[in-house]
Every structure is written in structure tokens, then in C-alpha cells.
Amino acid sequence: MNDTVTEDRWQNGKAIAVALIPLIAFLAALWFLEQEFRNLSMAQVVESLRTIPTLAIVAALLLTALNYVVLIGYDWLGIRCIDHPISRKQIVTASLFSYAFSNSLGALFGGTPIRWRMYSAWGLTAPEIVRLIYFIGSAFWTGLFLLAGLVFIFSPFDIPQRLHFPLASSEPLGYILLILVSIYWSICFFRRKEIEFFGVNFQPPPFRIAIVQALIAAFDFGLTAATLYVLLPADISIGYFQFTAIFLLALFVALVSHVPGGLGVLEVVLLVMLPQTSESIVASLLIFRIVYYLLPLLIAMICLAAVTVYKHHHRVTGLVAATASLTTIIAPRFITGGVYLAGIVLLVSGSLPAAQGRMEIVRDLLPLTVIELSHFLASFVGALLIVLGRGLQQRIDAAWRISCGLLAFGAIFSLAKGFDYEEAIVMLLLLVILLPCREHFYRRGGLLAARADVGWIVTIGMSIGLLVWLIFFAYRNVQYSDEMWWQFAYEGDAPRSLRALVGVSVVLCVVGVARIIRAHPVPPELGTPDQIAAAAKIVAQSPRTQANLALLGDKRFIFSQDKQAFVMFGCEGRSWVSMGDPVGNIASADDAAWRFREACDEAGVKPAFYQVDESRLGRYIEMGLSILKLGEEAKVTLPGFSLEGSARKNLRRTMKRADEMGLSFKVVPAAEHSPTDKQGNWIDPSTPEFFQTLQRISDAWMNEKSTGEKGFSLGNFNIDYLRRYDIGLVMLKDEPIGFTNIWRGADRQELSVDLMRYLPDAPYGVMEYLFTKLMMWGSEEGYQTFSLGMAPLAGVDSHRLGPLWNRVSSLVYRHGEHFYNFQGLRSYKAKFDPVWHPKYLAAPGGFASPQVLANVSTLIAGGMVKLLRR
Q1: Model confidence over 567-595: pLDDT tens digits?
Q2: N or C: less crowded end of the chain, CB within 10 Å?
Q3: CB 203 within 8 A of CB 164
Q4: pTM for this one?
Q5: Helices 454-474 and 327-351, interaxial angle, to 10°?
Q6: How many alpha carbons fall within 13 Å on the CB side of residue 33?
Q7: CA separation for the pair 370, 372 (Å, rounded)
Q8: Is the Cβ–Cβ distance between 392 and 400 less than 8 Å?
Q9: What DSSP letter does each residue of 650-701 carry, written as one string?
């Protein structure tokens, strides 16, 4: 127990340390900026914003638009490398939305899940998406290294000592980068076999494609640098290539820092490296941030809102239809990012001096009390919008409603506190975007149920750090005194900012205390009869037969708010393990999955989803869970199933031998062996010989195997459970010698079995005979597939460069027969020529995954003692 606690503390400490890196880098950047801005005037910076030529802004807009067109090349080449038949319109849609989000907020809210969810919805498998992401990443870094290496050599510059960079000049770094590019290209040219790296197998792109990748990426970085270059003041005496070299160094440092969008870090390096620092350069950087980062995000949000409205009033096709089908997936992330930025805008505005010309307008219209209160409440609203981001990300409807109201009040307070009509327009525009997206926020969870994890705490810490820095920078020439807190005047910008800072701190403290004192739930009890009955109705509508495990009686349940989906799970050690994906329609299943995740967070245990399908991996990635392959599920296609052909000769031999021995097969419907009364209650049969016979077969089978009943992912002999299902019997001269209960999927999509038992003296191949007969019967009944279940650890790669878990899994697969017949099970199922579908574990990463698997093994075995006996 002590080892487990120590390991958990170590893992938590490591996660916190990693999350603190961007916060430390951001705070360090603010300190450097303070040093650089020591002689700058905020008023002069604002004045410089007005002097930037309109032509320069138009040029920056055009370059940004061209840059986003070039960004499509990353996805286009990546799709070519994985050779998947996806349309160009879908590539364009995925690329533009992904980059519009990730360029501004990827490090905060995760840009990768957007690309993952979009491509997975269009039919790409998990390995294909992973390969695509790696191809895009390799193109990005290769292009950056190529262009940076060239400009560092041909436009060299000295690196100031105060940046604490290990090199004094850019030229040596340029050669190093070009050598790295040459190594990568050599691998692409000579290597033709797959390379395993961190558990992902991918073949390097052909040499010619690798060259094109690098050129596209280099063009991308060149355009980004040009966007800022055209905004620089005319008195900056620096050429484009020299500026590009400095910009790429700044970009590299910003990427390494992991600060969202390189905010602060990019500015620090540029201000230190450029020939001179002035208010005009700061103004250019601000416009660059708006044009290149915020404007594309805003346009993407407007498009999503427009598509959401349009699809409800028109029949959509083509690209609009492709986007409309994905709005539920990606819109909440964009909206979360937009609302978070709206909160930042209000906080920043509340920390800066008001424009005097506008204050005079407000002064003539409103009393001082209204202005002071509006200023305080605007910052208060900004803090609340930041806090609500977590609830929006988890699609809680209350977060949506409150955000709509706060955006409206934010617009009013922005006008009342200083006639800041730009902020009011932003708030109202976001409100217009948010209103039609109501359908995406369907969860009825409480706001405090949304756990504020380390990432969100760091994000809020960065926001408050920026607010404090702006206040001290803007009013560094104002002499502090205790009386400032009680000074109320139209020109009292500094006192108003200090009071706003206190209001923001109060909001965060109240939310934090509410989280701390919130009662933590205890693990729920096993499912009650009412819960099992409710689950049974949902199971009856599920096409997946695995949903029937909910009716075993050994599961706990968490239902969605609308009671149309549920998660069935078990508790073992410090893990709560969901058996498979949530059962129910997709929207309700998402809600149930989030509720399960939140319940785990509240209870302080590790959440895990065991044996989940590939098509739903995006859901778990969005939750911040890691994905590990567990094995592969075997599914036999039933339409047209027959014993003809060379691949089925062994099955024909088995069936022929069975017929010669006098074996036969029959299906006993549930209504016959378990009659019910008018209320649907089972009536104990007057002749209980049927279940007594099954019990005798089961007991004999258990004694022969020297094992105990299992559970969780497997059925056990429970008469109340078996009464629900048709029973397939293998007969020898009219005497039952083996049986199984039959699972039927809704709409005849899938057929499967659970409990399989036979007498020890039954003829060899009796189960193979039973499976074959069931498949033939299912084909006649019109079912589409027959699931043979999962072959654990099958298909998990074990290359020496792969992660430790893959190598351990492969070792267990080869040598773990004492605990489980891994290889034999795979070989047995392969006889039926199935299609193999990967199954995954979604759980916290690192050492938590083996611990979760150990807990799953204990759940299946029915306890640690039974596990060790096996």
C-alpha cells in the first residue's frame, strides 16, 4: 500500500513539474519584458498602434491568408503518405480548423484532439492518424531546421549573452540544424522498412516527398516571418532575411517553452535581438498577435456557428455537410478557447489606463459610481469566464447559459467603464457565435463537478501573472499608498486596476475553496435491481453484444443525465475500470463518459476504459487519457457464411467428424426455458431439470479446469442471468453435453456468446462445432457479424525501440500461458478466418497503465486469491 501511495505521489509530482514548465517560462518572459520595457510608455505604445499604416495591416492579412493555404500542404502530404482515400475538401477542412485552433490555444486546450476527431470521423484508423500526426510533425521540424539553418549561415548574427544561449553566434547552430535535416533525408532515401518509435510503426516518406514537406514548411515559416516584417516600423534598419533568422530563433525558443502561442517568450527574444527597441515594435507585435493568431480563431468560430445554424434550416451537402457533421465534435473546443480569450481581454482591459478621449464621453453620460462599478464588474466577469472554460470544455449546459449572460454583461460593462467599444464588439460577436451552439452543451452536470486539473490551474496562474504584470508595468511610475484603495476619480486608473485585481482574486479564491470543501463521493454500490432494469432497456437497443455484461450483477453504473446511456464499471485498488465504451447513443454516451471521469476525479482514483473501440478513441484523448493497445477482437462476417473453400477445410473436417459421432445443435429460446407472467416476472418452472443439467455441465467443466468463476469481462453461471438469453445446446444422442448463452445485438448487427461450458468427456472439438453451428444459424437469421471476443495482447508490437509497455505485453503474450492461454486463444479464433479489430485501454499514462491492467485482471479473476491460484 505504501509503495502504491509513493508511486502515485511520484507520478503526480512529475505531472505537476511538467505542467509548471510553461508557467515558469511565461513568468520568466514577463520578467525579461519588464527589463526591456523599463523606459517605454504605455501611452506611447497606444499611440504607436494608431500610426501603423493601413496598407501594412492589409498586407499582413493577405500574407496570413496565404500562410493558411500553405498550411494545408502539411495534411495533404501526410494523407498521401498514409495512402488513405480521403477527399481534398475534407483535408482542407481538417487542416484549416486544426491550425486556426492550435496556433492560438493548442497548448492550453489541445489541438491534436481536433485533428484526431475529424479524421477518425472520416474513416481513418488510429494507427493511420498517429502516422499522419507524426508526418506533419516531422515536416514542421524539418522545414524549421532547413530554413533556420540556411538563414543562420547566410545571414548570421550574434546572440546576446542575456538570453543565456549556449552559442554566441547563429552560424554554428545553422550547421547543426542542416546536419540534422541531412540525417533525416538520408533515412528517407535509404530506409524502406518500417521504423518503430515510441510504439508507432511508420515508414519514412519517400525522399521526394520529404523534400517537398520541408519546402512547404520552410515556405510556411517564411510567410509567418513576412507577416510580422511588414508590420515593423519603417525606422527599423533590418533586411527581411536577417529578420527571418532572428524570428526563427525566437520561434524555436517559444516552441521549446511550451507557452501557448509563445506568448511573451517570442516577444522577449525579438525585442532583445532587434537592432533597437521602441514603442512602435511593441505595437507591431500586438497587431501581429491579433492578425495571425486571434483573427483566424475568430473566423473559424464564426464558420462553425454559421454551419450550425445553416444545417438546421437547409439540406447540406459537400464540404458544408462534412463540416456540419463535425460541429458537435470540434465546436465546444473552439468556444472554450474563445470564451477564455474573452475573459483575458476583459482582464487586460481592466488593468490598463482608460483612453482619455473616451473617458470624457462616458464622464458626460454616467456618474462616477457607475463607472467605478462597471470597471470592477468587467474584471469580475473576465475572471468568471476563465473559470467557466473547464465547464464548457466538458459540455455542461449551465456553463453555456452563464457564459452567454456574462458575455452580454461584459459588453455592457466595457461600454460603461470607458466606452471600450472594441471589447464590446468582441463580447457581442462571441455571444452571437455562442447562442446557436446550444445543442453542443447538453450535459446537466454541476459546474464544480468539472475538475480543475493541473493544466487548468497553470492556465489560470498564467492569466493572473499577466494581469499583475500589466498593472505594475502600466502604473510603475505611480507612487503607491494605502489611500489608493479608497480613491475614486475619473482619472483614477491605478486605484481601479488594484480593486479589479482584488475582485479577480476573490473569484478564484471562492471557486478554489468551494472545490476543496466539496464533499467527495464514496464508491457507488453494486447496481440495484432498478438500475439493472434501466440498463437492460438500453442494452436491448445496442448493436454491440458486449453491452450484455451490464446484466451480470457485478457492475456499478453511472448513467447519463437523460438516462439514455450508462457506464458499467468495477472498482479495484485505486482504479475504477469501465468495461468497454459507454452503452447508448453517442451524445448520451459522451455525457456518461464525462460523468464517470468526473466521479473518478472526485473520488481520487484512476479512471480507465477497458476494451474500447478504435472509433471512439478521440473521446478519451479529449479527456487527457493515454491510449494503449490491448489486443484484437475477432469478428466473423456472417452474410454468406459457409464451409466452402480451402480456408474452411478444417471446419468441414470438424463438422464431418461431429456428425459421425452423433452430435447435434439446437437453440432453446429464453421464453421456453424461463416463462414469465403477465408482468414480465420469471416463473420458476415446475420441472427445473433444464438448469440442473446446465449446472451439472458447468460444475464438471470448472472442476476439470481447476479454476473459479470469473466476472467483469466474462460471464459466470448465474441462473437469473442465464434466464435472460437463448441457450445454444450441443447434444450427443439427445443428451446435452455443452451449452452457451447467446447474445443478440440490436438490428441483427452482431451475434456473440458469453458463458461456454462442456463436459470433460465431451468429444474433441465440441466448442469448435458449437461456434460453427452458431455462425451458420446466425447467418440464416440475418445477423451481420459474429464476435469471438478479444485475443488479449495480440498484435501489440514489441520492437526494442517501442515503449516499455509494448515489450512487457509481448513478453507476457509469449510466456504468460500459466495465467492465460494468450497464444492458444488467438490461434483458436483464427480458425474461423475473422476480421481483427484493435481494442484499447484508455487510462492515465506512465506507470498507471500496468497498474490499471493489474486491477482489471483482479476484477476478471474475482479477487487476488483467485488470480494467484490460476
Answers
A1: 999 888 778 999 999 999 888 898 899 88
A2: N
A3: no
A4: 0.64
A5: 30
A6: 24
A7: 6
A8: yes
A9: HHHHHHHHHHHHTEEEEEE-HHHHS-B-TTSPBPPPS-THHHHHHHHHHHHH
